[in-house]
Structure to design on (323 residues):
């Protein structure tokens, strides 16, 4: 944790400025829309995604300098991520996020959808103002991928034929694409060669996949207070994640509860007991660790400088969330 604190100290000024800028960037003419958007940024959090972008900026520029376009990209990434959470909460009918009431719970579903759309629109406007067509193209694809991921998830609810490969592909569209594309975009802004851009894309992809797998494990192993949102929500919504898929392979009794789409809370409780009594959670953790190690190897092999160690620290921190 000391090393992680050192990381945040190294970009403390930039993160403080980022928090101020986010509040300015989401200003809206309509007070309700502004209140809805502003509510989302009350919880400061660790800002892992912007931190990764800022550290990559230091690694890939002369004199280890973070340029204004790098900072703006970090802000855009956080806005896009937050917009996706607003829509996720509506789709999943989630009443808490990061310990706070969700936008649709405070206002209504219509306002929440509009707030999410507003944030996507704001991010697109600031993205265009970076005046870099390559970056515009790659980050715009993220929003397309998000929609693709949500559709895939919706079409496979309670589908017990889903494979780990299907799950990884869906997780890329829903989560990892943002980190992968943002890491590559950072390298583009730093005028890095294509091979460096591709390496950082892969780093972001593996980190993003690991992050999603760990989130899915925590949905089963943690309680609502720790998560800051309702636990077991994936299971209740029929979203079959890595630990559930692995558990299905080991204990066929789980099929009947999923096939019946959990008639009662007791069904959920029974299903949770089955999952926890299999090696599903451990196998999911092993899968997350594989992606973390792939990400770390890219950094160790391609980026030998003082700031690169912070990307390894972040990578290990993501895995340590379940320890």
């Amino acid at each position: 944790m000391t090393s992680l604190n050192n990381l945040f100290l190294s970009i403390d000024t930039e993160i403080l400025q980022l928090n101020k800028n986010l509040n300015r960037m989401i200003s809206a003419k309509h007070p309700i829309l502004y209140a809805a958007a502003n509510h989302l940024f009350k919880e400061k959090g660790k800002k892992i995604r912007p931190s990764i972008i800022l550290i990559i900026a230091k690694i890939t520029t002369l004199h280890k300098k973070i340029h204004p376009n790098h900072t703006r990209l970090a802000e855009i990434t956080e806005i896009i991520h937050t917009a996706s959470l607003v829509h996720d909460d509506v789709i999943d009918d989630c009443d808490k996020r990061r310990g706070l009431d969700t936008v649709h719970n405070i206002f209504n579903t219509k306002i929440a959808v509009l707030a999410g759309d507003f944030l996507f629109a704001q991010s697109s406007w600031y993205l265009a103002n970076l005046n870099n067509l390559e970056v515009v193209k790659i980050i715009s694809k993220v929003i397309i991928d998000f929609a693709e991921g949500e559709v895939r998830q919706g079409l496979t609810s309670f589908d017990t034929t889903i494979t780990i490969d299907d799950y990884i592909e869906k997780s890329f569209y829903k989560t990892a694409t943002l980190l992968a594309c943002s890491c590559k975009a950072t390298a583009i802004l730093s005028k890095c060669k294509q091979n460096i851009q591709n390496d950082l894309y892969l780093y972001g992809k593996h980190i993003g996949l690991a992050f999603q797998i760990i989130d899915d494990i925590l949905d089963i192993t943690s309680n609502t207070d720790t998560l800051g949102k309702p636990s077991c929500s994936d299971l209740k919504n029929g979203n079959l994640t890595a630990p559930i898929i692995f558990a299905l392979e080991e204990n066929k009794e789980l099929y009947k509860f999923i096939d019946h789409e959990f008639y009662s809370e007791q069904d959920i409780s029974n299903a949770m007991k089955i999952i926890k009594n299999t090696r599903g959670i451990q196998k999911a953790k092993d899968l997350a660790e594989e992606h973390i190690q792939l990400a770390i190897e890219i950094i160790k092999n391609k980026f030998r400088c003082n700031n690169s160690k912070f990307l390894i620290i972040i990578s290990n921190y993501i895995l340590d969330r379940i320890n």
